[in-house]
Amino acid sequence: MSKCAYTKSARWYDVLIEPLIGTLRTTGLAMFPPRAGLSVLDIGCGTGSHLSLYQKSGCRTFGIDLSPAMLTVARQKLSATVPAALAQGDASRMPFPDDTFDLVTATLAFHEMPAALRAPVVDEAQRVVKRDGRFLVTDYHPGPIRFPEGWFTKALITVIESLASADHSRNYRDFMAHGGLAPLIAKNSLLVDAQKIVGGGTIGLYLLRQS
Fold this sequence. Notes:
The chain is α/β, with parallel strands linked by helices. It has eight helices and seven strands. It has helices at residues 10-16, 18-31, 49-56, 68-77, 115-128, 149-162, 166-177, 181-187, and strands at 39-43, 60-65, 85-88, 101-107, 129-140, 190-198, 203-210.
Protein backbone atom coordinates (compact mmCIF):
# COMPACT_ATOMS: atom_id res chain seq x y z
CA MET A 1 0.00 0.00 0.00
CA SER A 2 1.24 3.44 -0.90
CA LYS A 3 2.79 5.45 1.88
CA CYS A 4 0.85 8.46 0.50
CA ALA A 5 -2.59 6.84 0.64
CA TYR A 6 -3.71 9.12 3.49
CA THR A 7 -2.11 12.38 2.38
CA LYS A 8 -5.46 13.99 1.54
CA SER A 9 -7.66 12.22 4.10
CA ALA A 10 -5.53 12.55 7.25
CA ARG A 11 -6.91 15.96 8.16
CA TRP A 12 -10.55 14.83 8.09
CA TYR A 13 -10.10 11.23 9.27
CA ASP A 14 -10.94 12.03 12.90
CA VAL A 15 -14.10 13.89 11.89
CA LEU A 16 -15.57 11.22 9.62
CA ILE A 17 -14.15 7.88 10.78
CA GLU A 18 -13.29 8.24 14.46
CA PRO A 19 -16.94 8.61 15.62
CA LEU A 20 -17.69 5.28 13.94
CA ILE A 21 -14.93 3.31 15.69
CA GLY A 22 -14.67 5.02 19.08
CA THR A 23 -16.73 2.31 20.76
CA LEU A 24 -14.27 -0.31 19.51
CA ARG A 25 -11.49 1.45 21.37
CA THR A 26 -13.44 1.54 24.64
CA THR A 27 -14.35 -2.13 24.24
CA GLY A 28 -10.67 -2.96 23.80
CA LEU A 29 -9.75 -0.93 26.87
CA ALA A 30 -12.20 -2.99 28.92
CA MET A 31 -10.62 -6.22 27.66
CA PHE A 32 -7.15 -5.12 28.81
CA PRO A 33 -7.48 -2.13 31.17
CA PRO A 34 -4.51 0.24 30.97
CA ARG A 35 -2.57 1.26 34.03
CA ALA A 36 0.22 3.72 34.66
CA GLY A 37 3.66 2.58 33.62
CA LEU A 38 2.66 0.04 30.98
CA SER A 39 4.51 0.28 27.67
CA VAL A 40 2.06 0.19 24.74
CA LEU A 41 2.77 -0.03 21.02
CA ASP A 42 0.04 0.70 18.47
CA ILE A 43 0.61 -0.80 15.00
CA GLY A 44 -0.94 1.38 12.31
CA CYS A 45 -1.40 4.14 14.88
CA GLY A 46 -2.91 6.58 12.37
CA THR A 47 -3.91 9.88 13.93
CA GLY A 48 -3.06 8.68 17.44
CA SER A 49 -6.59 8.41 18.84
CA HIS A 50 -5.98 4.94 20.28
CA LEU A 51 -2.68 5.90 21.89
CA SER A 52 -4.23 9.01 23.41
CA LEU A 53 -6.47 6.82 25.59
CA TYR A 54 -3.46 4.93 26.95
CA GLN A 55 -1.51 8.14 27.37
CA LYS A 56 -4.28 9.53 29.59
CA SER A 57 -3.93 6.44 31.80
CA GLY A 58 -0.23 7.07 32.34
CA CYS A 59 1.11 4.48 29.91
CA ARG A 60 4.33 4.94 27.94
CA THR A 61 3.08 5.08 24.37
CA PHE A 62 4.69 4.17 21.05
CA GLY A 63 3.29 4.00 17.54
CA ILE A 64 4.26 3.02 14.01
CA ASP A 65 2.54 3.91 10.75
CA LEU A 66 3.45 4.11 7.07
CA SER A 67 1.72 7.44 6.50
CA PRO A 68 3.65 10.64 7.27
CA ALA A 69 0.42 12.62 6.97
CA MET A 70 -1.32 10.55 9.64
CA LEU A 71 1.73 10.78 11.90
CA THR A 72 1.74 14.56 11.60
CA VAL A 73 -1.80 14.62 13.02
CA ALA A 74 -0.83 12.08 15.70
CA ARG A 75 2.15 14.13 16.87
CA GLN A 76 -0.07 17.18 17.30
CA LYS A 77 -2.65 15.17 19.23
CA LEU A 78 -0.12 13.41 21.46
CA SER A 79 2.07 16.41 22.31
CA ALA A 80 1.60 15.97 26.05
CA THR A 81 4.24 16.41 28.74
CA VAL A 82 5.61 12.99 27.78
CA PRO A 83 4.67 12.65 24.09
CA ALA A 84 4.35 9.33 22.34
CA ALA A 85 7.35 7.97 20.46
CA LEU A 86 6.14 7.64 16.88
CA ALA A 87 7.98 5.99 14.00
CA GLN A 88 7.23 6.08 10.31
CA GLY A 89 7.81 2.66 8.85
CA ASP A 90 6.78 -0.86 7.93
CA ALA A 91 5.38 -2.90 10.83
CA SER A 92 6.97 -6.05 9.41
CA ARG A 93 10.39 -4.51 10.21
CA MET A 94 9.90 -2.51 13.39
CA PRO A 95 12.69 -0.41 14.94
CA PHE A 96 12.07 -1.65 18.47
CA PRO A 97 14.11 -4.08 20.61
CA ASP A 98 12.92 -7.55 21.56
CA ASP A 99 10.67 -7.96 24.63
CA THR A 100 9.87 -4.26 24.94
CA PHE A 101 6.10 -3.84 25.26
CA ASP A 102 3.47 -4.94 27.75
CA LEU A 103 0.78 -4.53 25.11
CA VAL A 104 0.79 -4.34 21.32
CA THR A 105 -2.42 -3.15 19.67
CA ALA A 106 -3.65 -3.07 16.08
CA THR A 107 -7.06 -1.57 15.32
CA LEU A 108 -8.43 -2.08 11.79
CA ALA A 109 -4.88 -2.42 10.50
CA PHE A 110 -4.56 -5.98 9.20
CA HIS A 111 -7.25 -5.70 6.53
CA GLU A 112 -5.26 -2.85 4.98
CA MET A 113 -2.08 -4.91 4.62
CA PRO A 114 -1.11 -6.99 1.59
CA ALA A 115 -1.62 -10.67 2.36
CA ALA A 116 2.11 -11.37 2.30
CA LEU A 117 2.75 -8.86 5.11
CA ARG A 118 0.18 -10.02 7.66
CA ALA A 119 2.10 -13.00 9.07
CA PRO A 120 5.43 -11.07 9.20
CA VAL A 121 3.71 -8.28 11.14
CA VAL A 122 2.39 -10.82 13.64
CA ASP A 123 5.91 -12.26 13.92
CA GLU A 124 7.26 -8.78 14.65
CA ALA A 125 4.55 -8.15 17.23
CA GLN A 126 5.54 -11.37 19.00
CA ARG A 127 9.19 -10.33 18.89
CA VAL A 128 8.69 -6.92 20.48
CA VAL A 129 6.05 -7.87 23.07
CA LYS A 130 7.20 -9.19 26.43
CA ARG A 131 6.78 -12.91 27.09
CA ASP A 132 3.95 -12.16 29.52
CA GLY A 133 2.58 -9.33 27.37
CA ARG A 134 -0.57 -9.25 25.30
CA PHE A 135 -1.62 -8.45 21.74
CA LEU A 136 -4.99 -6.71 21.31
CA VAL A 137 -6.15 -6.85 17.71
CA THR A 138 -9.39 -5.56 16.22
CA ASP A 139 -10.57 -5.98 12.65
CA TYR A 140 -13.43 -6.93 10.37
CA HIS A 141 -15.09 -10.29 10.96
CA PRO A 142 -16.67 -12.46 8.25
CA GLY A 143 -19.79 -13.30 10.25
CA PRO A 144 -22.30 -14.77 10.53
CA ILE A 145 -23.96 -11.39 10.14
CA ARG A 146 -26.95 -10.75 12.39
CA PHE A 147 -29.98 -8.70 11.38
CA PRO A 148 -30.52 -5.77 11.72
CA GLU A 149 -27.31 -4.39 13.28
CA GLY A 150 -24.97 -6.55 11.27
CA TRP A 151 -26.65 -5.76 7.97
CA PHE A 152 -26.43 -2.03 8.60
CA THR A 153 -22.82 -2.18 9.80
CA LYS A 154 -21.77 -4.40 6.90
CA ALA A 155 -23.32 -1.95 4.43
CA LEU A 156 -21.47 0.94 6.08
CA ILE A 157 -18.17 -0.96 6.01
CA THR A 158 -18.69 -1.78 2.33
CA VAL A 159 -19.24 1.89 1.49
CA ILE A 160 -16.17 3.01 3.47
CA GLU A 161 -13.92 0.37 1.94
CA SER A 162 -15.16 1.10 -1.58
CA LEU A 163 -14.06 4.73 -1.15
CA ALA A 164 -10.54 3.75 -0.10
CA SER A 165 -7.56 3.45 -2.44
CA ALA A 166 -7.42 0.59 -4.95
CA ASP A 167 -4.69 -1.16 -2.93
CA HIS A 168 -6.66 -0.78 0.30
CA SER A 169 -9.86 -2.15 -1.25
CA ARG A 170 -8.04 -5.11 -2.81
CA ASN A 171 -6.36 -5.98 0.51
CA TYR A 172 -9.69 -5.71 2.34
CA ARG A 173 -11.37 -8.12 -0.08
CA ASP A 174 -8.52 -10.59 0.26
CA PHE A 175 -8.59 -10.34 4.06
CA MET A 176 -12.30 -11.11 4.17
CA ALA A 177 -12.06 -13.86 1.55
CA HIS A 178 -9.49 -15.64 3.74
CA GLY A 179 -11.61 -15.49 6.90
CA GLY A 180 -10.37 -12.36 8.66
CA LEU A 181 -8.27 -12.64 11.81
CA ALA A 182 -9.07 -16.17 12.98
CA PRO A 183 -6.86 -18.05 10.46
CA LEU A 184 -4.01 -15.59 11.07
CA ILE A 185 -4.25 -16.17 14.83
CA ALA A 186 -4.29 -19.95 14.41
CA LYS A 187 -1.43 -19.98 11.90
CA ASN A 188 0.82 -18.07 14.29
CA SER A 189 -0.07 -20.32 17.27
CA LEU A 190 -1.40 -17.43 19.34
CA LEU A 191 -3.65 -18.19 22.30
CA VAL A 192 -6.93 -16.32 22.78
CA ASP A 193 -7.41 -14.93 26.29
CA ALA A 194 -10.65 -13.18 25.37
CA GLN A 195 -12.66 -12.29 22.32
CA LYS A 196 -15.69 -10.17 21.50
CA ILE A 197 -17.64 -10.18 18.24
CA VAL A 198 -19.52 -6.91 17.88
CA GLY A 199 -21.33 -4.89 15.24
CA GLY A 200 -23.81 -7.67 14.58
CA GLY A 201 -21.01 -10.09 13.68
CA THR A 202 -18.97 -7.71 11.52
CA ILE A 203 -16.04 -6.86 13.83
CA GLY A 204 -13.89 -9.02 16.08
CA LEU A 205 -11.69 -8.04 19.01
CA TYR A 206 -9.13 -10.55 20.27
CA LEU A 207 -6.86 -10.39 23.30
CA LEU A 208 -3.96 -12.72 22.51
CA ARG A 209 -0.85 -14.11 24.14
CA GLN A 210 2.06 -16.19 22.96
CA SER A 211 1.90 -19.96 23.37
